[in-house]
Amino acid sequence: MKSRRHFIGTIGSAAAMTALAPLARSENADVRDDGLSREVKDVLRYVSIRDIDVFKLRFNKKTPLTWNAIKKSGGTYPSVTYLKITTDQGIVGYAATKGNARDIESLAKKITGLNLLNTEQVWNHMFFHNRKPVAKGKEIHAMGSVDLAVWDIVGKALNQPVHRVLGTYSEEIPVYAAGGYYAERKGIRGLVKEMEDYVDEGYDTVKMKVGYLSARKDAERVRAVRKALGPEVKIMVDANNAYKSAYQAIRFGRMVEDLDLYWFEEPVMPYDWKGNHEVKDQLDIPIVAGENEYTRFGALDLLSNDACDIINMDTIKAGGISEMRKIAALCSAYHVPVAPHGYSHMNVHVVASLANALILETYPKKARDFNPALPAFPVKSGRIKAPMEVGLGMQPAEDLVKKYRV
Are residues 233 and 116 in the same domain? Predict the structure, then answer.
């Protein structure tokens, strides 16, 4: 059994792609006519699961209690759950996960014995094998988690960042700072200061929450942020499905329509496609929806009902990178851009590989301080560089695992 280090050393900088330079020949390797050693060709031919581990890291710095329009978060010690898949070739894949650990392990076991390099076959096996082919639910969260770990393995097998394997479209990626939550004793002044800090960090696009207060009070908050940041900074508002009817969302939207907002996210309930269409039709603000939908079939519901201008499907919840590529392709046929919701450290590879990706959601330094396993991206002029680490770049440092593993 070859270790990943031995394999990477053998393959060098090649990505097992015919367009790249042939690998250097070792004295003891059985070299084929195409320049690839037998051992490298064997690795690139078949990679399968040897071991599965789902583990949690819980950090020791308590986050402040905040909330959006529908739920409270924070006030606890933050955590992140990882899926670790070890292969028979010694390559180890990691992904941050959503969903139940038991579901994730069950989905990963379903693909034991399959060739993980056959990503389409692997995804279809998880989706259709031994279960009803429903397109929604927490099982899709688990499937997306497994799919991401598989892509990490594929990237490592080819010695390339995942976006290179997918086909890089852009090496510089527009990003926004997700924040602007409600909090105790955080008035308009505190909100404005938070948004100004994000701009000082390098962002030129910021997002804030709305929908918890009255339409008039929320409009005052948005107007104060626009006045403080000026006309050049792009401002997003996110209602988290707060408005129970389209007319409520439209009423709020008209109060801020003159502020040149970048988008209005999730104005009504996720399943209210007609309501989303009404808001989209009545307001001169781009409408975003999709983070609570599943797979390409959920995207098709949004698109065919003309429910939004931009789709922000969550990469894990929607079914993983394999499914996000299909969603993006479907959206491109409707001339609708995508802006994935969720873990930016994995989504960055999707966004870097898509021609119709609009922008990447990220959490700035202030939020990332509570999670040392996922550090903040260096942001300059509202953009970040596409990562060049092999795979997804999600492997937690050994010292963090030893210190924080639950």
Answer: no
Quote the number of domains for the chain. 2
Per-residue pLDDT tens digits for 206-242? 999 999 999 999 999 999 999 999 999 999 999 999 9
What is the domain-level CATH number for residue 327?
3.20.20.120
Q: Which H, E and C letters describe the chain, residue by residue?
A: CCCHHHHHHHHCCCCCCCCCCCCCCCCCCCECCCCCEHHHHHHHHCCCEEEEEEEEEECCCCCCCEECCCCEECCCCCEEEEEEEEECCCCEEEEECCCCHHHHHHHHHHCCCCCCCCHHHHHHHHHHCCCCCCCCCHHHHHHHHHHHHHHHHHHHHCCCEHHHHHCCCCCEEEEEEECCCECCCCCHHHHHHHHHHHHHHCCCEEEEECCCCCHHHHHHHHHHHHHHHCCCCEEEEECCCCCCCHHHHHHHHHHHHHHCCCEEECCCCCCCHHHHHHHHHHCCCCEEECCCCCHHHHHHHHHHCCCCCEECCEHHHHCCHHHHHHHHHHHHHCCCCECCECCHHHHHHHHHHCCCECCEEECCHHHHCCCCCCCCCCCECCEEECCCCCECCCCCCHHHHHHHEC
pLDDT one-digit tens code per residue, 7-56: 444 444 333 333 333 333 333 334 445 556 666 666 678 999 999 999 99
Q: Are residues 266 and 342 in the same domain?
A: yes
Amino acid of residue 99 = G
pTM, full prediction: 0.89
